[in-house]
Amino acid sequence: MPVAMTRHPKPPFLPLSGALAGAFLLAGCGTQGEFPSLARRPAELGARPAPAGAPETGTPGRIEGSARPDAPAAGTMVRQEEISADLAARLRELGSAAREAHGRFEAKRARAGQLTAAARGAAPGSEAWSVATIAVAELESSRSDAMVSLGELDRLYAQKRIDGGDGGAIAAVRDQVTAWVADEDAVLAELAGRMNG
């Protein structure tokens, strides 16, 4: 009598168990770290890059829609460096000292002019000559005070140029003081001509 062959049916859970195993494997891979997105990037989609200075979006720590601060213009940074609090105060001090010295010069200018006119042709050592000489010396003293400020402004300007700055703020004050001193030099030269004439 032939032996009947027993057929063992396939377990019905094998295909299901294979699917579950694959799902578990994929889930395990996803928990071991963050991977880049597989979505197409803007460059792959043909999108143009954002213009320079455009607000960045989606960046951690940045408010959506807020723009990055604009960079200062080329000369702005230098100007801010020149007008620091200390330098601005020093320029005001030097300018004020020179202005006061020039004011004293102008206040004595008319009287010195009268005295030198009266001393024209007077002998050196005479009373008229002596009084006129003192008046001119007072003017020269006021000019010397202005020259102290001018010398310091020259020093500050030279140092700023050495440091790479343009020195524009210093030059503006220095030019004004230079104009005052030049006016005083012209007056003193005229008075000296009267005394020696």
Question: What secondary-structure arrangement, pairings included, does this model have?
Answer:
Blueprint: H1 14-30, H2 74-82, H3 85-118, H4 127-162, H5 168-196
Helix pairs in contact: 3-4, 3-5, 4-5
Overview of the molecule:
With 197 residues, this protein is mostly helical. It has 5 helices and no strands. Helix 3 (85-118) runs antiparallel to helix 4 and helix 3 (85-118) packs parallel to helix 5 (168-196). It is elongated and about 55 Å long.
Mean pLDDT: 73
Count of runs of 4 or more consecutive helical residues:
5
What structural category arises from helix and sheet content? mainly alpha
Residues in helix, %: 55-70%
Show unreliable segments: 1-6, 8-38, 47-82
Please tell me what the overall shape is: elongated
Instruction: State Rg.
Output: 44 Å
Sequence of secondary-structure elements? HHHHH
Q: How many strand segments?
A: 0
Strand content: under 5%
Report the major sheet: none
Termini Cα gap: 163 Å
Give a short synopsis of this structure.
With 197 residues, the chain is mostly helical.
